[in-house]
Amino acid sequence: MRRPGQFKMVLLGESAVGKSSLALRFAKGQYQEHAESTIGAAFLTHTLQIDQDTSLKVELWDTAGQERYHSLAPMYYRGAQAALVVYDITNGESLRRAKQWVKELQQVNANDMVIGLAGNKADLATGNRRQVDSNEVREYAEQNDLIFMETSAKRDKCNRNGASYKISRYIKIFNRSGTRVKDVERTRIYSSSSSTNSGASPRK
């Protein structure tokens, strides 16, 4: 087997939307009910098998969502092949903030980065807790060439609706198709969702 390639991915979004939970679920298959707020950024790695002969060492940067850490974000997303912008489906304000992150990434990176938009806490979609309409977000994602998904770090069961599966698919598709998101069948792949070291510094 060849030596694993490297893939840098950054998670962005408002505080308390579940970025750290998604990162932990993907990297270690674990979930913590009460995770502490990230300070600066946390760094996790996970080796992802692409096919029989190819693997990727995924470097996952989980950034702090508090406003006071915003100025540090470019240091972490610089050089990343992909970004996953996370919002909470029970918090409409978190989507507004996510759109600001998308705009910033598009202005800075143009076509050099694949951007995903993830509605987390899908396990809370029942009843009246949902505040974000998935169809509206999907339309926004299509208009902005984003990969859209709704998922739940808490209820991940390694199936097609799980966070680990979707993030893995996201990375595998990128690895095969390059940086042009419109060449990735983004909505079809993720539409099923609708029917560590704190304070780490990025490598130069």
TrEMBL record:
<dbReference type="InterPro" id="IPR005225">
    <property type="entry name" value="Small_GTP-bd"/>
</dbReference>
<keyword id="KW-0547">Nucleotide-binding</keyword>
<dbReference type="InterPro" id="IPR001806">
    <property type="entry name" value="Small_GTPase"/>
</dbReference>
<dbReference type="Pfam" id="PF00071">
    <property type="entry name" value="Ras"/>
</dbReference>
<dbReference type="GO" id="GO:0005525">
    <property type="term" value="F:GTP binding"/>
</dbReference>
<dbReference type="GO" id="GO:0003924">
    <property type="term" value="F:GTPase activity"/>
</dbReference>
<comment type="similarity">
    <text>Belongs to the small GTPase superfamily. Rab family.</text>
</comment>
<dbReference type="InterPro" id="IPR027417">
    <property type="entry name" value="P-loop_NTPase"/>
</dbReference>
<protein>
    <submittedName>
        <fullName>Uncharacterized protein</fullName>
    </submittedName>
</protein>
